[in-house]
């Protein structure tokens, strides 16, 4: 992570911690390309609703790193802006409660729209990870010891009764605690690493940068699908992209290699097919070429 990235993250955390929240939406970075403006503007409003204005400011600070950066055209910048907003507004029980309440407000006075219950299956570790780390970590350790860490747990999000609505409001009210959670810390690290890999690609293998940007689409939703996406992303980045950027793996076309690996990614916790494919791709690189790259 760059010094600027560390400072923007700390600024966001301390602003929320001491309660100094400026309600004025942050300004877009100067020099932002015109095609990126509507995407970034929508993202700012999304992230204010999702968390806070200081969280939206963190998004703007991250965007600013790519303004005027060589190799970043309008299409790539637009994808960075869009995909970063999606990852920063990750789907957790708090967000689903927010969205259900928003749906209720939109349906107010419309007799055709009937309140409905929505049951989502999260993993137990996913639910516990929404708690502050000081509370969550002992619980996670205990669940792992008991073998219950990955068990599915259904959560009912309902606007069909007063109690259901009241519960949604309590769940949505946990938004202020989100920034102290285990999940938030992991998501912050992931976004920074993704941005770092984009930056390294622009320096080491610019042709692969759009492919690095697009890897953010591997991580979506919640539950097992989300966890598989994160694991597959790490396997591809650690097995192909990082070694190429470090100069220890001489892949002439990293983008093609990553596309080949992604095609082998299956919803398999052991990642058998993906790991085999990554090993095949690495094995095709002559040993002498790897030595020269190092």
Brief summary of the model shown:
The protein has 294 residues and is mostly helical. Helices cover 62% and strands 5% of the residues.
Model description:
The protein has 294 residues and is mainly alpha-helical. The chain folds into 3 domains: 89 residues, no CATH class; 86 residues, no CATH class; 106 residues, no CATH class. The chain has 14 helices and 2 strands, in the order αααααβααβααααααα. Strands 1-2 form a two-stranded antiparallel ribbon. The radius of gyration is 21 Å and the shape is globular. The relative contact order is 0.10. About 2% of the residues have low confidence.
List the helices and strands and how they pair.
Blueprint: H1 3-17, H2 37-50, H3 53-64, H4 74-88, H5 93-107, E1 117-123, H6 124-128, H7 133-146, E2 152-158, H8 162-172, H9 182-204, H10 209-214, H11 223-246, H12 254-263, H13 272-283, H14 287-293
Question: Tags for this entry?
Answer:
two-stranded antiparallel sheet; 294 residues; globular; 2 strands; mainly alpha
Beta percentage is under 5%
Give the overall silhouette: globular
Mean pLDDT: 89
Q: Could you say which structural class the secondary elements and strand pairing correspond to?
A: mainly alpha
Number of helices: 14
Number of domains: 3
Question: In total, how many beta strands?
Answer: 2
Low-confidence segments, given as residue ranges, are 16-20
Tell me the series of helices and strands, N- to C-terminal: HHHHHEHHEHHHHHHH
**N-end to C-end Cα span:** 23 Å
- Rg to the nearest angstrom? 21 Å
Strand order of the largest sheet: 1-2
The main pleated sheet reads as:
2 strands, antiparallel
- The helix fraction, in percent, is 55-70%
């Amino acid at each position: 992570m760059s010094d600027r990235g560390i400072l923007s993250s700390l600024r966001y955390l301390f602003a929320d911690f001491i309660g100094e929240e400026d309600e004025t939406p942050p300004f877009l970075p100067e020099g932002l390309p015109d095609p990126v403006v509507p995407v970034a503007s929508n993202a700012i409003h999304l992230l204010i609703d999702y968390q806070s204005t200081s969280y939206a400011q963190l998004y703007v600070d991250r965007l600013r790193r790519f303004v005027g950066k060589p190799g970043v055209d309008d299409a790539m910048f637009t994808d960075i802006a869009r995909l970063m907003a999606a990852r920063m507004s990750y789907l957790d029980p708090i967000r689903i409660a927010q969205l259900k309440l928003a749906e209720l407000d939109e349906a107010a006075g419309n007799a055709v729209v009937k309140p409905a219950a929505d049951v989502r299956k999260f993993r137990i570790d996913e639910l516990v990870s929404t708690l502050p780390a000081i509370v969550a970590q002992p619980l996670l350790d205990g669940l792992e010891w008991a073998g219950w860490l990955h068990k599915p747990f259904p959560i009912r999000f309902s606007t069909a009764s007063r109690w259901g609505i009241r519960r949604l409001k309590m769940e949505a009210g946990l938004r202020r605690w989100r920034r102290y959670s285990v999940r938030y810390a992991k998501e912050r690290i992931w976004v920074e690493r993704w941005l770092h890999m984009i930056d390294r690609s622009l320096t080491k293998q610019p042709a692969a940068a759009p492919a690095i940007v697009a890897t953010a689409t591997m991580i979506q939703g919640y539950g097992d699908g989300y966890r598989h996406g994160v694991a597959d992303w790490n396997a591809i980045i650690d097995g192909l992209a990082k070694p190429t950027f470090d100069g220890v793996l001489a892949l002439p076309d990293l983008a093609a290699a990553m596309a080949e690996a992604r095609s082998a990614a299956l919803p398999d916790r052991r990642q058998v097919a993906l790991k085999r494919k990554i090993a095949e791709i690495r094995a095709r690189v002559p040993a002498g070429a790897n030595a020269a790259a190092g």
